[in-house]
Amino acid sequence: MRKRFLGLLAAFTAVLMGGARAQADPIDYIIDPSHLTVAFKVHHVGYFNMVGLFTKGSGAFSFDEAALDVSGLKVVIATKSVFTGHKKRDAHLRSADFLNASEFPEMMFVSKSVEKTGEKTGKLQGELTLLGVTRPLTLDLRWNKAANHPIYKRWTVGVDATGTLKRSDFGMAYAVKNGWIGDDIQLTIGFEAYRDE
Fold it and tell me: Which domains does the chain possess?
C-alpha cells in the first residue's frame, strides 16, 4: 500500500511539474517581414506631425502567452528604407544630417524585460541602437491576438508597441535648436509573427 501511494505521488508530481514546465516554456517566433510596420511621427516647423515609415526590417523573439512574457525580442530595421512619400526629403533623411544610412545601414531595438500592466498589455524595457549609439527605450506593448492564421494556417501572434525617444540623445541634432524639426520622435512597431517550427 505504501509503495502504491508513493508511486501515485511520484506520478502526480511529474504531471504537475510537466504542466508547469509546459506553461512556462516560451515559444520562439519569427516576425513576418511582410507584416512588419515601423513608423515614426515628428513635429515639422511647428505646423504638423509628419509621418514616415521604414519599409524593410526583420526580427524574432520568444513569447510565453500564459504569462504575457516577451523575451529576446530583436528588431532590425534598414535605415535606407525610410519612406515619407517625398524623394528629396527621403534622400535628406538618409544623409549624415539624420540617419547617415551609408555609415549606419541598420538601427536595432533589443528587449531587456517586460512588466505586465494588464491582461494584454505591458511595458517593454529595452535598448535602441541608432547612429552607433545605444540608449534605453521603453515601449508600451499590446498583444492583440494569438490564433491560427486564416490564410497561412500557422499559429500567429499580433503585437503593437509604441514609445517616444529624443533623436538628439543619439547625436541626431539637425534643426533641433531652431525648432524646425522636433526632437521627440514617436515610434510605433507593429507586426505579425509566426511560430518558428
Answer: 26-195 (2.40.128.110)
